[in-house]
Amino acid sequence: MHKVDVAIIGAGTAGMVAYRAARKHTGKLVLIEGGPYGTTCARVGCMPSKLLIAAAEAAAAMRAAPGFGIHPAAPHIDGTKVMGRVRRERDRFVGFVNEAIEDIDSSHRLKGSAKFEGPNTLRLDTGAVMHAERIVIATGSVPVLPDFFDAVGDRLIVNDDVFGWPDLPAAVAVFGGGPIGLELAQALHRLGVRVRLFGKGGGVGPLSDPAVRDAAAAAIGADLPFDPDADVQEVKREGDSVVVRFTEGGRAREERFEWLLAATGRAPALDGLDLAASGLTLDQRGAPEIDPRTMQAQGSHIFFAGDVAAHIPLLHEAADEGRIAGDNAGRFPHVESHSRRTPLGIVFTDPNIATVGASFAELTDAAHDFATGKVDFADQGRARVLRLNHGLLHVYGERGTGRLLGAEMVAPRGEHLAHLLAWAVQAGMDVETALAMPFYHPVIEEGLRTALRDLSVNLGDRIDNPPRCIDCGPGA
Ligand SMILES: Cc1cc2nc3c(=O)[nH]c(=O)nc-3n(C[C@H](O)[C@H](O)[C@H](O)COP(=O)(O)OP(=O)(O)OC[C@H]3O[C@@H](n4cnc5c(N)ncnc54)[C@H](O)[C@@H]3O)c2cc1C
Ligand SMILES: NC(=O)c1ccc[n+]([C@@H]2O[C@H](COP(=O)([O-])OP(=O)(O)OC[C@H]3O[C@@H](n4cnc5c(N)ncnc54)[C@H](O)[C@@H]3O)[C@@H](O)[C@H]2O)c1
Q1: Which cysteines in this chain are paired by disulphide bridges (predicted)?
Q2: Best CA proximity match to 389, nearest among 376, 402, 399
Q3: Strand pairing of 370-376 and 352-357?
């Protein structure tokens, strides 16, 4: 039987980072991959979705030009060329990952799907069996598909399928108002695909602040048909079409599409691991309790990292967790505790949707004594110059200390505002210190300053905010 100090299951982002961290402690380790190399992020996640969005932004910019008095021809979208670039660039990113895999000692790489046969015993579907002193589980996540969708048969697709398309389809029904549904629905819509986005329960991405969520629903809904709480009676297949029966504004409707794209959530990829044989105590989801500071499960020799840990299923968190889990698996039993970064989430819609630090729901549920500062981008100087003047940003600060706690936004260039705020929150900055930082003129960040000033007023630190649109002129 093959014997190793550390076995890592899954060669995605978390698993590859875990391998490098564990390698510093031992040369007796193995990285096991059951599917294709290349990582979810590069193959079918972050990168191809952003490539599709970039093409959609180019088309949207052409359509927006008449608003400046510039009249180009309407965009002609060549679907095969759009998808060709998406796949070419995607393959380039995947190529870099594959090079990193090739750099790993070949005796440390194993192909096959692993499952537990005992707390320290793994069996691969190739028949190989190994004894591992410590194990890192980094198996990622899989799409959750409601049974309701079975009726559409092979017209049901997920994100992976989109990035394999040779051409753009004519019409797609997208289900799910989370990050995947929002990003793909808006991008496809802007690329000339007829899209309708069906949400459930009123959610819009990761937003929990009702006012910001409403503003985001309105901004996305102004671009394409989007109901965050759709009343769908039936989905079925008729010939090569997907038929969706739903209610809109009290009226029964039926619409036909080529595909039903499910973006209805992702779950930890635990099926097939036979975790029951691992000796861990499992909850009703079939998962053990994991310490997010050590990534250790119940003080055992088993560690989790990335989406499978169901902590924050984002790329930079997967990398951090891989580093923590790999290092601790390597040094076990002398496990070290690590502090985690300030939460940061960005959805690459237009306008961007973003969350930073503590969410409105977390602060409210914990009865935290906080105040909110606001800016509406409708009248924000630079946003108006650029005709990007849609959105709402709420920033939360602690009463008594003025410490910045978090923010939720749907905002132009929100990806950058969210970073500024995340860095300020992690640095423990208070609102007055943030306001003492330089703000250039005219920039979108002046909108953030308006929200910070409003927060300062609401915390009782200053009497009033300067008059409306002060960032339109000198002396701001
Ligand atoms: C469409 C989409 C867009 C996204 N966009 C963003 C974004 O813009 N920004 C962001 O931060 N995040 C984004 N994400 C999330 C991000 O991609 C994930 O958080 C991240 O890729 C998770 O990495 P991981 O290492 O946990 O999993 P993965 O990269 O999925 O790696 C898990 C690996 O484990 C293997 N495996 C599974 N079971 C077994 C087994 N039993 N034996 C052996 N191997 C096994 C799998 O084959 C896989 O290779 C996006 C996700 C999707 C789907
Ligand atoms: N830009 C980014 O960072 C980015 C982009 C894409 C994905 N991701 C990551 O991937 C994860 C998974 O994304 P996701 O969007 O699939 O999941 P999600 O869980 O965030 O959202 C799923 C949405 O689908 C809705 N839903 C569930 N059942 C439904 C049904 N029957 N009909 C209509 N809607 C239904 C839910 O209410 C929810 O709003 C995210 O949590 C995120 O961490 C990140």
Answers
A1: 41-46
A2: 376
A3: unpaired
pLDDT (tens digit per residue) in 407-447: 999 999 999 999 999 999 999 999 999 999 999 999 999 99
- CATH of the structural domain 344-472, one choice from 3.40.1390.30, 3.30.390.30, 3.90.1300.10, 3.40.50.2300: 3.30.390.30
The ligand minimizing its distance to the Cα of 231 is 2
**Beta-bridge partners for 352:** 411
Q: What is the DSSP letter of 453?
A: H
Of all protein residues, whose CA lies closest to atom 27 belonging to ligand 2?
264
For 320, the token pair is 């951090």
Is residue 441 flagged as an active site residue?
Answer: yes
| Residue range 147-264, CATH number | 3.50.50.60
* Contacts for 449 with CB less than 8 Å, ≥ 6 apart: 435, 439, 471, 476
Is 176 annotated to bind a ligand? Reply is: yes
Q: H helices of 65-209, where? A: 79-102, 159-162, 179-190
Distance CA 305, CA 265 (A): 19
Could you tell me the pTM of the whole model? 0.97
Q: Is 137 annotated as a binding residue?
A: no
